[in-house]
Every structure is written in C-alpha cells, then in structure tokens.
Amino acid sequence: AQKVTQAQTEISVVEKEDVTLDCVYETRDTTYYLFWYKQPPSGELVFLIRRNSFDEQNEISGRYSWNFQKSTSSFNFTITASQVVDSAVYFCALSEERWAGGSQGNLIFGKGTKLSVKP
Amino acid sequence: ETGVTQTPRHLVMGMTNKKSLKCEQHLGHNAMYWYKQSAKKPLELMFVYSLEERVENNSVPSRFSPECPNSSHLFLHLHTLQPEDSALYLCASSQEVAVDEQYFGPGTRLTVT
User: Fold this and answer.
1) DSSP string of B55-76?
2) Rounded distance, CA A48 to CA A85, Å?
3) Is the Cα torsion angle A116, B101, A5, B105 positive or negative in sign?
4) Per-residue DSSP letter, B80
5) Which residues of chain A neighbour B108 with C-beta distances below 8 Å?
6) A67, CA 20 to 30 Å: which among B19, B54, B63, B94?
7) Which of A94, A111, A101 is nearest to A34 (CA)?
C-alpha cells in the first residue's frame, strides 16, 4: 500500500542554520513519483520539486537540495542557510502511475513538517 | 488571472444551507482535483477529474457534489453539511492525472455552524 511518513512533526531552527526534512515512502510499484510542497501561513500549497523513480540524481536549486535514495525509500529535503521566509509546513507526497481499484490519480501526502525559522 | 483561483476565500454556512465552491485554472491542464485539509489530519483527496470525467471519488459523503463543466472549471456543491466538515478546501490542477505536479489554489476556508 502507498504510504508517506514524515516523522518530524515540528522543527525549530535559528536563521542561517541548515535543516533537513525527512520523508520515507512505501510503494509496491516500480514507477512512481515523489513531490515536495510548501504551505506558508497563507495556506496555498506551492510546488517545489517532482522526481520520478528512475531518476536518483540529487538536485539542488539555490538553497534547496533533495536527496533521493531508493535503497532506503527516502526523499529528504535540505534547506541551507535557512531564512525566516522558509517558515512553513512542508509536505512530501507520492503518486503511482497505475490503475488499481481506483487509485489512479491519488496523490498521497505525508502529515507535513512544520518548520519555524527564528531570526 | 494566472494559476489556480478559488472563490470564495472564506465561507460560513449553516447546516441547512446550500452553497458552492468554485475553482478555475488558467494553466491549460487536463486534470483537476478537490482536497480537504482539516486541522491535525493529512490532506485528503476528495475527487479527481480528467478531461471533465470523474476518475476518482474517495468515499466522500453525498453532501459533497462535484461538477466539472469543462477542463478549466471545477465546482464543489455543498448541502446539509456537518460541523466536522469545517476545513480548508483546496483545488488543484495538473497536466495529466497522477504523473505530473499539481498546482494548488489558495483554498476556501469553510466554517459550518
């Protein structure tokens, strides 16, 4: 069954610290997609990254980086030199490319990690 | 307008009222979604539409009724709701179902009194 676990409920750091948000997933499929979204206090989810299961290359975008490891079923997200504007809830999500009893299109979200960056 | 828009942003309704939430996407996407986000619960997928055809209904009570008249518009019709239906309702769209990233609207904060 599909499952996404974000074990860290809340993290608090001081500005300029590096912080890593963990994401562990479960899937039976060989083809799947992983996502990270940011939800600032305004409420709107903002898409950050999409990764397919065949691409294990790490990605860096400015202060953001992602580490995808199939061996441990993890897709962790690191913010380098955190800033107050990074304060938000971050969601990891999983989608499988198959039809199985109506699960097509089902994006499974983790419960989110609330990041607070203090000045 | 750009991206995904939702109206109204806030809604207070009584349990006997009928109201509708509206979502419009300006991205040329083929798939649209309704999600419910309650306090202390993960995001719950409610409905998925692909090319105006419903492809997913996640055991949502019949007091929620979706409508997708075209690939750019999605409605959620509400009637005889319960207080536990109070939540943030988010609309999203993607190019194709499942494989593509979803772009979300700002949400409608619904309070049922």
Assistant:
1) EEE-S--TTEEEEEEETTEEEE
2) 15
3) positive
4) S
5) none
6) B94
7) A94
pLDDT tens readout for residues A2-23: 899 999 999 999 999 999 999 9
**Token pair for B22:** 């509206």
> Using a CB-CB distance cutoff of 8 angstroms, which residues of chain A are in contact with residue B33?
105, 107
A3, two tokens: 């499952």
**Nearest CA-CA partner of A107 in A41, A42, A22, A27:** A27
Residue that has been written with the tokens 């190019």 in this structure: B95
> What are B24's two structure tokens?
């419009």
Higher pLDDT, A87 or B41: A87
Give per-residue pLDDT as tens, A34-47: 999 999 988 889 99
